[in-house]
Amino acid sequence: MHPNPLFRTDDRALCDSLIDEIGFGMVFAQTPDGPRVAHTPLISTGDGAVQFHLARSNALTPYLDGATALIVVNGPDGYVSPRWYENRDTVPTWDYVALELEGRVQRMDDAALEAFLHKAIAKHESKLGGEPWRAEESSEKVWSGLFKGITGFAMEVTERRPTFKLSQKKSAAERARIAGGLDEAGKAALAHLVRSFAT
């Protein structure tokens, strides 16, 4: 987390919306072989927990139940050039959005894992437009094969450490130029956030 309090927020709904929008993150935890990370789809339950699943063969899977772990969700990011500042006698920086979540992890039972999978599929299929694919289109053999190969987990989040570093220290005119530069660099989502976050 960035140490500058200007880049932090206590807005839990904003954090949940970031998890919802990105839908993917990294889970970090300690194992007997050292620290490990797994990349996984995420769903915020809206009541302080985040659900995810890992392959049973993942190096973290045997060690997560009951462990304290860290989830990181990365939002838009991009290089910010001094050419967009009023005074070019400075250095470049990087604007970004990131969320760290810490908490105790518990393994989900089969019913909760089944519900998680259906919710995740419906959520992501709805974003694609057109006729959505439904889990029921999988044969029992295919679905049970998937199910036997994964383990579901839920983290009860005790700490949220969000960073929204979006050039808040710059003037409104500079922020407009930064957003324009980011748009031209193909960073439309980050440009939108720079415009949205007031100082």
UniProtKB/TrEMBL annotation:
Q: Which InterPro entries match?
A: Split_barrel_FMN-bd, TR_PAI2-type
Task: State the signal peptide span.
Answer: none
Kindly provide the name given to this protein in its UniProt entry.
FMN-binding negative transcriptional regulator
* Species this protein is from: Erythrobacter fulvus
Its organism's taxonomic lineage begins at: Bacteria, Pseudomonadati, Pseudomonadota, Alphaproteobacteria, Sphingomonadales
